[in-house]
Amino acid sequence: MAITVSARKRLERMEATSLRRIASLEKALQKERDELAAIREAKNGGQKRQLRQIIGDAQPTQKDLVYAELKRKRVNGMTRTEIAERLQQKGVAISPNAVTTNLYRLRLDGLVEFDAEGEVWRVTEAAETTQAGH
């Protein structure tokens, strides 16, 4: 069966449109791949300037601040109240209950553990090993 001239023209326009969309998608895909490569490089210790460009001037979360306090007291560990007091001295408004919530999240991440005997929280050995490897 022969294709009419108008049908052929319509197919050509449809083909051209599809090719333009594919080119646009390929360009967007390359942009995403480049961004992913930059993110991975920054995660693996890339330049701080590049990290700042990727995430902006992100402020540390309460979880980050709680973990940082525990890292400072690796050997003895700290109670949730001690962590809250230390952070409050630094101008961070955080309650012991919020500290506990973040400690549980850190525990789920495998970064801290609770020592029931001493009733303190500590950074896990696995977290210390991981941090030393970076």
Task: Provide an overview of this structure.
- By secondary structure, the chain is mostly helical.
- The chain has 2 domains: 5-55; 62-133, Orthogonal Bundle (Arc Repressor Mutant, subunit A).
- The chain is 67% helix and 6% strand.
- The protein has 6 helices and 2 strands.
- The chain has a two-stranded antiparallel ribbon.
- A hairpin with a 4-residue loop joins strand 1 and strand 2 (120-123).
- Helix 3 packs across helix 5.
- The longest helix is centred in the N-terminal third of the chain and has 39 residues, at 5-43.
- It is rod-shaped, with a radius of gyration of 26 Å.
- The mean pLDDT is 86.
CATH class of the largest domain, named Mainly Alpha
Percent helix among the residues? 55-70%
Low-confidence stretches: none
Strand content: 5-15%
**CATH topology grouping of the largest domain:** Arc Repressor Mutant, subunit A
Structural class: mainly alpha
